């Protein structure tokens, strides 16, 4: 074995897939064979570089279109593909549906809504997971760092929208008031069948004069001079 | 780390509760006080009622002729020549214009109205027999109508010989005479009856309680009370050009206020339409508007006003103190405006509680 190069066993050595005896003999061969030692070194470097690449980022437009197909604002609960980060957030803090951004922003971003299934889809789209379930995702830190600037933009947008968080209620209230005013305006209109009348004031005056045993007002005289000393007040007690 | 005083958060609810309690106390204090102490029926012995009932009976039995002097709030009296024939009616003619008489024909409706007026007088005021006095050199019996606060709202003088009611004065809240009438030159016996005269009698269609209720359900404003002291004492209806007109008489026993209600609206050329306000006597009973040539009253306390509201045209004619007539007008729907908010307000009132 020492006279032969390691060949395909070299990659198995680098991946740690050789048995104890084969692993020991391979290490003895590497100590003697400079060519195999050089090749093993290059294989380890390549492996580290591949590991350092991390997860590819999902295409944002694709995620936006994908989310628009999903009518539900969030999942029914934690699923098998749930990422280790949560996506809780308040209602109304997410971008509108159909935008180029995934609902709830980037996974792990504040105010995310329904980020769990989208993150799972992203992993599936990108290929097999690079870490076993339950194991730390080596790409997580890198991805979070890279999404920091975008998450900052999402936070800034949320802060801009926060002053208008109650505007939904204001708009709803304004709509109710407008509807009420409109209804009242319509109801306050004059009926089509309301007749135009001119009250017969002369007849009213006569009727009033009859019930009050008086003379109709339009015939009240002017310039009458009463007899002297005829006032009631003068005759009173 | 917050720089806010942690105790300020606890003080806010306390301040809010203090404000609420203060408001509730103010509400209780203001609601517990009666707006005006005299706005209640006066109690006490109405020992003056028999005197007035006897005078009413004498009016229906005794023919006479006299001159009635009527004085308004301005103190300027005018005279009416009066001839009373119980079986035929009452002739009224302005002194100096006796060829323009007006005859109130005798009717059972007017007799029953007199009974209700006396009942309303008793219900509203304390009708006290103030004893014997003299009026123009003739013996008379004085009856006073007193308010709950003891002030005099009206005085009646009953002639000691004939038993006729020969004088009456209505006082406003300040105690000033608002309207008075006085019979002078009284002569018992049948006076001269005119050959030609304008006649009048109450509209024929009397409205009973059931009919008034039906009208109210149709939106007519024919309330049983306008204010605490103005009760409906008579309601009648007639038709003008096919449209029903209701005449409701409200009284406190001393004054009469006629309310005429007609469904419809005033024409665009009517004086009250552009302004959306009253036409007629201004607030306080003075300054009769010259904008409508058919509403003119003498300066004898007659209060006249006309306006439209809620699809009806209201007309008020009153021989009453301006304050009483004003309270009646205020109790009725206000004149409607023509602007946006007036229409919205009208619509809200029509919609009622949603």
UniProtKB/TrEMBL annotation, chain A:
Q: Which domain of life is it from?
A: Bacteria
Amino acid composition bias (Gly residues), ranges on this chain: 105-115
Task: List UniProt keywords, sorted A-Z.
Answer: Transcription, Transcription regulation
UniProt key word Transcription regulation: yes
Specify whether Transcription is a keyword of the entry: yes
Listed Basic and acidic residues bias regions: 143-153
Pfam families, per this entry? zf-HC2
- Name all Putative zinc-finger domain ranges: 8-37
Q: Which residues cross the membrane?
A: none
Protein name stated in the entry: Zf-HC2 domain-containing protein
Q: Say which species the protein is native to.
A: Nocardiopsis coralli
Automatic annotation (TrEMBL), chain B:
Q: What is the protein's name according to its record?
A: Transcriptional regulator
Which species is the source of this protein?
Answer: Nocardiopsis coralli
């Amino acid at each position: 074995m020492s006279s032969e190069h390691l060949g395909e066993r070299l990659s198995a050595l680098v991946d740690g897939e050789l048995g104890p005896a084969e692993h020991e003999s391979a290490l003895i061969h590497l100590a003697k064979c400079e060519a195999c030692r050089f090749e093993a070194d290059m294989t380890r470097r390549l492996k580290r570089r591949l590991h350092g690449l991390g997860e590819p980022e999902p295409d944002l437009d694709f995620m936006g279109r994908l989310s628009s197909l999903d009518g539900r604002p969030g999942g029914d609960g934690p699923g098998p593909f749930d990422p280790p980060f949560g996506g809780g957030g308040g209602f109304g803090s997410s971008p509108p549906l159909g935008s180029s951004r995934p609902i709830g922003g980037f996974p792990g971003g504040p105010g995310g809504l329904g980020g769990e299934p989208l993150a799972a889809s992203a992993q599936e789209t990108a290929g097999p997971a690079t870490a076993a379930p339950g194991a730390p995702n080596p790409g997580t830190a890198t991805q979070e760092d890279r999404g920091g600037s975008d998450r900052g933009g999402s936070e800034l947008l949320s802060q801009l929208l926060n002053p208008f968080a109650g505007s939904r209620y204001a708009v709803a209230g304004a709509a109710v008031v407008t509807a009420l005013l409109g209804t009242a305006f319509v109801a306050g209109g004059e009926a089509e069948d309301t007749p135009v009348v001119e009250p017969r004031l002369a007849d009213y005056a006569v009727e009033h004069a009859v019930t009050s045993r008086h003379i109709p007002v339009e015939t009240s005289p002017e310039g009458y001079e009463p007899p002297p000393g005829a006032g009631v007040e003068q005759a009173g007690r | 780390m917050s720089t806010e005083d942690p105790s300020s958060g606890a003080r806010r609810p306390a301040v809010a509760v203090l404000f609420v309690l203060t408001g509730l106390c103010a509400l209780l204090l203001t609601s517990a006080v009666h707006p005006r102490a005299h706005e209640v029926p006066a109690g006490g012995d109405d020992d003056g009622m028999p005197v007035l009932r006897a005078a009413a009976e004498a009016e229906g039995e005794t023919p006479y002729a006299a001159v009635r002097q009527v004085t308004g709030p301005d103190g300027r009296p005018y005279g009416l020549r009066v001839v009373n024939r119980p079986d035929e009616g009452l002739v009224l003619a302005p002194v100096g214009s006796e060829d323009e008489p007006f005859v109130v024909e005798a009717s059972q409706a007017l007799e029953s109205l007199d009974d209700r007026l006396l009942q309303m007088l008793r219900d509203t005021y304390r009708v006290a027999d103030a004893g014997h006095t003299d009026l123009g050199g003739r013996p008379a019996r004085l009856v006073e109508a007193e308010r709950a606060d003891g002030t005099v709202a009206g005085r009646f003088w009953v002639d000691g010989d004939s038993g006729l009611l020969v004088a009456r004065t209505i006082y406003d809240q300040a105690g000033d005479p608002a309207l008075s009438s006085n019979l002078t030159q009284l002569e018992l016996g049948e006076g001269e009856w005119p050959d030609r005269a304008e006649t009048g009698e109450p509209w024929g269609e009397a409205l009973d309680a059931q009919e008034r209720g039906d009208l109210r359900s149709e939106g007519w404003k024919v309330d049983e009370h306008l204010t605490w002291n103005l009760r409906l004492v008579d309601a009648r209806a007639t038709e003008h050009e096919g449209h029903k007109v209701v005449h409701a008489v409200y009284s406190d026993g001393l004054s009469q206020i006629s309310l005429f209600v007609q469904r419809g609206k005033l024409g665009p050329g009517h004086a009250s339409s552009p302004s959306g306000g009253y036409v007629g006597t201004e607030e306080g009973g003075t300054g009769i508007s010259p904008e409508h040539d058919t509403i003119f009253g003498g300066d004898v306390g007659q209060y006249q006003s006309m306006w439209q509201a809620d699809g009806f045209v209201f007309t008020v004619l009153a021989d009453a103190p301006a304050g009483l007539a004003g309270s009646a007008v205020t109790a009725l729907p206000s004149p409607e405006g023509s602007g946006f908010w007036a229409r919205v307000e009208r619509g809200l009132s029509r919609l009622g509680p949603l």
